[in-house]
Design goal:
The chain is mainly alpha-helical. It has two domains: about 110 residues, Winged helix-like DNA-binding domain superfamily/Winged helix DNA-binding domain (Arc Repressor Mutant, subunit A, Orthogonal Bundle); about 120 residues, no CATH class. The chain has ten helices and three strands. The chain has a three-stranded antiparallel β-sheet with strand order 1-3-2, covered by helices on one side. The longest helix has 27 residues. The two termini are about 40 Å apart.
């Protein structure tokens, strides 16, 4: 890849916007956070901050990012720590690294974050046509462990309950929503942020149900949403401290 202007890297972004990038990065951290040391996590978070102008794409030089950890994070990291973080991030599928060249010589690298694999098309809420087709076909319901509801669910205005109603009974939706509200209260998250995080947690739960890896829906959802909300709370505190 040739080293070029910032706008030329925009096509590498895999996210709709910065909010989408932040949400999916949080999902990644639930799965891979423990694979990184404390110093490597500092390096990764700083890389994320440098990936804001183009969602999920960083074109800053390593020395610039490392210097920023010394200036803003309190505990600076070394160049070798940053490189170890890159190696691990590539191994787990979080990052793709593009080497750029200028005048035949290698220039700085471009770091591109990948989307979270569990946020896939099969867990998107079906539209009216898809629901109609499902009711006419029995093959789909035999191929997965969780089925779309054949009755007409209540039309909720709440995005979480709306998505929930496609797969669970009204009573189950009510119980899942209670779990969401409890964790929202405990972590003191804004309503909008709570709903977005809850929908992600529910998508993960549905995906695991389809693969047959979950037996207790409420317990699994409670565990997933607890991790997501805790990470959101930490991220909000981190951002608030940084912005002061």
């Amino acid at each position: 890849m040739k080293s070029g202007k910032v706008e030329e890297y925009r096509q590498l972004s895999q996210f709709r916007d910065l909010k989408d990038f932040n949400n999916q990065f949080e999902q990644w951290m639930i799965d891979v956070k423990d694979k990184f040391t404390k110093g490597e996590r500092i390096a990764l978070k700083r890389l994320v901050r440098f990936s804001a102008s183009i969602a999920g794409v960083c074109f800053a030089k390593i020395q610039t990012i490392v210097a920023a950890t010394h200036q803003f994070d309190g505990v600076g990291i070394s160049r070798s720590t940053f490189k170890r973080m890159l190696t691990k991030a590539k191994e787990v599928g979080l990052l793709v690294i593009h080497n750029t060249f200028r005048n035949g010589k290698q220039s700085h690298s471009v770091y591109v974050f990948n989307t979270y694999p569990s946020v896939c098309k099969e867990t998107e809420p079906p539209n009216e046509e898809q629901l109609s087709q499902h009711n006419k076909s029995s093959n789909l319901s035999k191929s997965i462990n969780i089925k779309l509801r054949k009755d007409k669910p209540i039309r909720y205005s709440n995005e979480f309950l709306k998505y929930c109603s496609y797969y669970f009974t009204d009573d189950q939706c009510s119980e899942l929503n209670k779990i969401r509200l409890i964790h929202t209260h405990i972590n003191k998250l804004p309503s909008e942020s709570s709903i977005r995080a809850s929908v992600y947690a529910l998508k993960i739960t549905v995906s695991k149900l389809k693969s047959g890896k979950v037996k207790r829906v409420m317990g699994y959802f409670d565990g997933v949403i607890r991790k997501i909300f805790k990470q959101r709370k930490v991220n909000r505190l981190f951002i608030n401290v940084f912005d002061q």
